[in-house]
Write a structure and sequence with these properties.
Strand content: 25-35%
Shape: elongated
CATH topology of the largest domain: Rossmann fold
Number of strands: 20
Structural class: alpha+beta
Oligomer: single chain
Helix content: 10-25%
Strand order of the largest sheet: 6-7-8-3-9-10
CATH superfamily of the largest domain: P-loop containing nucleotide triphosphate hydrolases
């Protein structure tokens, strides 16, 4: 399935930046948004990523005008839209449950917003045809919503958002109700449509792979606060704190103490051995004796038969889960004297194109990580 924008829909939107300044939204004593500040570049596909209850959907609804913030300001380009009514903001929104009218056919669902805007009938028909062509639903123009598959309903919701020619496209977990295969197919098509139409788009999800594979940049939100903003690679490779490291993908944590520090680098002593690692960013500084946490991704650890000179953990391979192209190993760390580390330290190691380690469980092995793959997080 490939969705291709027809020529009539290309370049109809003016790319605008979106800016939030100290946004606060409270529900009783709960601050769903607690001083959120961020900027989205024109034409950027920007992801809001975080656990359930983090404040992602609240932020999106404030952008759409469905909720009014208690404090702060929202800018679309040079226009302050903080108190502007939803229908005057020129946003298009795709909801998690699609919010389609079951009594209307596909074309009427897509054109509903244009009718509310009092657009003349001929223009509505033309723009609906263009939007349906963009999402390859021309043949379903007269179909009822209950006659469509989940993927087709999702595309109707996307066409309805596109047909209004929004300044900003807002997507609230639009693929969460689809099966895994269809979700995978539609991810790249949503990105394609946003880029071909030059849309500024803000996309809410709790699916890390969705954000990492599609986003130009990602903001990780937790407890109503922005914890980190960066490209997918930056957020994954250089998490700013333990919460971000733990939420984005999978990681191993080792507690330790700084024995030496330099610009961007620190040497850390742990119960499982000494490590050289990198700091999350240039602004982070550490001093000797500081308590820290090491974050090492499972795929960054390599099993060796002989110890390397540095950044090596001695241990034994325990349970092995074999998936064909990849295997996951449970690795029990041992101390310098060969005894079990106290408290017990178990690491997760992932290996592509796995070798025959699973046949040698219980024997001593060595897990090695490059210094660039060891992130030293202040405790």
């Amino acid at each position: 399935m490939v969705l291709t924008l027809c020529s009539g829909l290309r370049h109809l939107w003016a790319m605008i930046p979106v800016r939030l300044e100290n946004l606060v939204k409270r529900f009783g004593d709960l601050a769903a948004l607690d001083g959120v500040t961020l900027a989205v570049e024109p034409g950027e596909l920007f992801f809001l990523l975080g656990p359930s209850g983090a404040g992602k959907t609240t932020l999106l609804r404030c952008l759409a005008g469905l909720l009014m913030p208690d404090e702060g300001r929202i800018w679309f380009g040079d226009e302050d839209v903080t108190r502007v009514e939803p229908h005057l903001r020129q946003t298009g929104m795709v909801f998690q449950n699609y919010a389609l009218w079951p009594h209307l056919n596909v074309a009427d669902n897509v054109g509903f917003g244009l009718k509310q805007q009092k657009v003349n009938r001929d223009e509505i028909e033309q723009r609906v045809r263009e939007a349906l062509a963009a999402v390859q639903l021309t043949a379903q123009e007269t179909a009822r919503i209950h006659q469509l598959s989940g993927g087709q309903q999702q595309r109707v919701a996307l066409a309805r958002a596109l047909v209004t020619r929004p300044r900003c496209l807002l997507l609230d977990e639009p693929l969460s109700n689809l099966d895994a295969k269809l979700r995978q197919e539609l991810r790249s098509e949503i990105r394609r449509i946003c880029k071909e139409s030059k849309l500024t788009a803000i996309y809410v999800t709790h699916d890390q792979k969705e954000a990492l594979s599609l986003g130009d940049r990602v903001a990780v939100i937790a407890g109503g606060k922005v914890r980190q903003i960066g490209t997918p690679r930056e957020v994954y490779r250089r998490p700013c704190d333990r919460l971000v490291a733990d939420f984005i993908g999978e990681t191993n944590f080792l507690e330790g103490e700084v024995i030496r520090a330099d610009v961007g680098t620190a040497w850390v002593r742990t119960a499982a051995g000494d490590f050289e690692g990198v700091l999350p960013d240039s602004a982070t500084t550490l001093v000797e004796g500081a308590k820290v946490t090491l974050s090492i991704r499972p795929e960054c650890l390599r099993l060796l038969g002989e110890p390397a000179e540095e950044n090596t953990i001695t241990g034994r391979v325990g349970d092995v889960t074999y998936f064909g192209e990849i295997a996951h190993y449970e690795f029990e760390a041992l101390g310098r004297d060969g005894a079990a580390v106290s408290p017990p330290t178990r690491l997760r190691i992932s290996e592509l194109n796995p070798r025959a380690w699973q046949g040698r469980r219980g024997q001593p092995f060595y897990a090695y990580a490059d210094a660039d793959d060891v992130v030293v997080l202040p405790s």
